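lol ok so funny story. i was supposed to be doing the assay writeup but got distracted and ended up predicting the structure for this chain instead. priorities right. anyway since i did it might as well share w the group, maybe its usefull for someone
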Amino acid sequence: MIKLTEQKKQAMLRLSSKSGIIAALAIDQRGALKKMIAACKPSGAEDRDIIDFKTLVSKELTPFASSILLDPEYGLAAARARDSNAGLLLAYEKTGYDASQKGRLPDLLNIWSAKRLKEAGADAVKFLLYYDIAEEADINEQKHAFVERLGAECTAEDIPFYLELISYDAQHSDSGSQAYARIKPHKVNDMMKEFSKPRYGVNVLKVEVPVTMTFVEGYADADKVVYSQDEAARYFKQQSESTPLPFIFLSAGVSAELFQQTLRFAKAAGSTFNGVLCGRATWAGGVKPFITEGADRAKNWLHAEGQRNISQLNAVLQETATPWFGKC
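and the output, tada:
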């Protein structure tokens, strides 16, 4: 456990509900959002499309979120448009990774720093790291040193450091396969153990659930079951025990309904997760009307479906999530 300074504690309070649950909205997507827009627009996504959509989502949905995660490349207008009661996380990483190099190595936005993100209004800095616990030692050592530098930078600025961890297997590219599902619990839970070490200076982990829910008994077709419900529950419990830090779940692009079911499953398994940073499961359906029918139509969708998604998620969080107060 890393004890929070008073400044970090106040920032964490701004990012969470009064009850200590992090009910955050994520729209820091850049490459993924461009692809979603391009699927509806043959000429491709323009910067203005991305900026305006993020701003609309922020304005319409942050009254129902404890905070919002944005990027400084396209999201600063959205940050200004957010509800006054919503905290702000800003992403520090470049989107994606260089596929021509081994190891999915991390990289930072060139003209940003923890200091500059804080000056832009961030209550916390978020960084996304792709990590394979079994990858070559020289690659993982680069990542360890990289995160140590980020932690030291955030410590110097006295701003919370949220580390988003995305697992993968360097030998197999299909993370949606049954083969990957079998090794995912080890990948996810062991990398959480690694980056919970005090040397990294992490305050909150943003993580995947430790199983692929569409391969869990009761959530999968009979011929696609990888985990029994008891096995899946054990992996959730092991995940919770793998870190003393507050940790929150990302939605990983699944449907709003499946994500809510997953949170209930995690709670029943004994997980003490502390909230969510939920993105596409909340707002993805608004992209098509925004591009094909205009901002007013997208606003109507956000008022109806978007608000319903986030309100239902908030209700589930009240039933399932644990306050972070006791963890730092």
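The chain has a mean pLDDT of 96. Strands lie at 22-26, 67-70, 87-91, 124-131, 161-167, 204-207, 247-250, 275-278.
back to the writeup now i swear
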